[in-house]
Amino acid sequence: MITLRDITVWDTGETIDLTIPEGTAMPDGDYDATGLTLAPGFADPHVHFRDPGQTYKESMVSGCEAAASGGYTDVLIMPNTVPAMDGETLADPEAPGAREVLDAGCDNVIDYLQHYESIHKVDLPVRYDLCVCASKGRVGHEATELDHWRRYMPGQDDESKDRYQLAHPVTAISDDGSAVTPQILDDVLAMTRESGLYLIEHCEHHDTGAVNEGPVSRKLGVPGIPEDTELKVVERDIAKARETGVHIHFQHVSTAISFDAIRKAKAEGLPITCETAPHYLALCDEALLEYGTLAKMNPPLRSEADRQATIAAIADGTVDLLATDHAPHTLDEKKLGFLEAPNGIIGLECAYGVCHKVLVDGGHISDKRLIELMSVEPMRLMGHEPTDVTALLDEQNGNGEPGAKRTLDLGALDTATAAGIGLAVLNTGEAWTVDPEQFHSKARNTPFGGWHVTGRPLATIIGTRLVFSRIAR
Ligand SMILES: [Zn+2]
Ligand SMILES: [Zn+2]
């Protein structure tokens, strides 16, 4: 058993003892946790774990380990796997990535990822849900068929499901990597409404260009992506949310003009939410000059004015939550140059430090608000209740002596309550330097290597188990 003495509860400031019955992440015993913060675990509704199909970049194992070491307890896996996670039975065993799925006795990628732990005999350190494609093959020609994947949703014939199916349901729809194409948008919205799920939109479309259009793209001699490539999709989808009432969640919003449109639509009461990612609040397109393709992503890093607008949108509540868009690629792939290198960077293992440095140290939001943006809000979007430490303390300690130190004993929870526990131990004041070589991810594609940041996740707890720790005695 591990006991963390005198840890501070993130929202009330109460000092408590926390006992954790299981976990090999650190030796049993008592630890002085004075000054550390106990928060609900971070949740990321936007990660790419490249499994199946591109496990040389990342796998479910390395991706989940990266998440746990970043303080995350819950993630939503995007469907641009190879083959794509569209719910269709894999017909061609020779198609890229199909063999892994078929050899495991699964008939599609959803089935494979739901049973990943039993197939590979591993115990993954974070909880995950799955996102199904909006279009078959994620190529934008034809909407996926609800009848082919409805059974993977929560509440659909749950009595006949095994524990893996129950643990990893399909909870959202997206063609992330691309915006839903105009020709299938109405079909996708009808399907989304019928399913009762929500649509996650990669709200960006451009036919040409590799980096933000402006002085930097001209200096580099690389074709630019105009700023309204995002706004066009945002405006189109706001109109659709108004027309259909379907909840649309905008991913990785990056421009001032999009935030303005979203701000207005929210004031109207439309069912939309949005996220941005650490890189859009920490970097602008000038980073391309310093970091090269390690700063290439889609949507591209925008202007400094857009970066400032992103921070303002976080501060005023237009941004609902922070997601990383954790996108692993090899450094060889990233060396291909601005035109050819794949888009995206990894984010799970330094997101909290980078966001804390820019947003909290920068005086834009409080420590508490950052935790809401990284755990409470994304958990709710994903359909889960964030762990309420104070409610658990009340339950276990009753009306004890006023002022007496209370203990949260995870070992005393009933099975159902324990199953919902997700906690992170944070040192909100720790200054540290990002070293990608220490990452648990297989990938190293980040521009944040060498950055001096503050705020560090120290331990991650799922259920009654300590799954990750860097706490020193
Ligand atoms: Zn995207
Ligand atoms: Zn993405």
UniProtKB/TrEMBL annotation:
<keyword id="KW-0479">Metal-binding</keyword>
<dbReference type="GO" id="GO:0046872">
    <property type="term" value="F:metal ion binding"/>
</dbReference>
<dbReference type="InterPro" id="IPR050138">
    <property type="entry name" value="DHOase/Allantoinase_Hydrolase"/>
</dbReference>
<dbReference type="GO" id="GO:0004038">
    <property type="term" value="F:allantoinase activity"/>
</dbReference>
<dbReference type="InterPro" id="IPR002195">
    <property type="entry name" value="Dihydroorotase_CS"/>
</dbReference>
<keyword id="KW-0665">Pyrimidine biosynthesis</keyword>
<keyword id="KW-0378">Hydrolase</keyword>
<comment type="function">
    <text>Catalyzes the reversible cyclization of carbamoyl aspartate to dihydroorotate.</text>
</comment>
<protein>
    <submittedName>
        <fullName>Dihydroorotase</fullName>
    </submittedName>
</protein>
<dbReference type="GO" id="GO:0005737">
    <property type="term" value="C:cytoplasm"/>
</dbReference>
<dbReference type="InterPro" id="IPR004722">
    <property type="entry name" value="DHOase"/>
</dbReference>
<dbReference type="InterPro" id="IPR011059">
    <property type="entry name" value="Metal-dep_hydrolase_composite"/>
</dbReference>
<dbReference type="GO" id="GO:0006221">
    <property type="term" value="P:pyrimidine nucleotide biosynthetic process"/>
</dbReference>
<comment type="similarity">
    <text>Belongs to the metallo-dependent hydrolases superfamily. DHOase family. Class I DHOase subfamily.</text>
</comment>
<dbReference type="InterPro" id="IPR006680">
    <property type="entry name" value="Amidohydro-rel"/>
</dbReference>
<dbReference type="GO" id="GO:0004151">
    <property type="term" value="F:dihydroorotase activity"/>
</dbReference>
<dbReference type="GO" id="GO:0006145">
    <property type="term" value="P:purine nucleobase catabolic process"/>
</dbReference>
<dbReference type="Pfam" id="PF01979">
    <property type="entry name" value="Amidohydro_1"/>
</dbReference>
<feature type="domain" description="Amidohydrolase-related">
    <location>
        <begin position="38"/>
        <end position="383"/>
    </location>
</feature>
<dbReference type="InterPro" id="IPR032466">
    <property type="entry name" value="Metal_Hydrolase"/>
</dbReference>
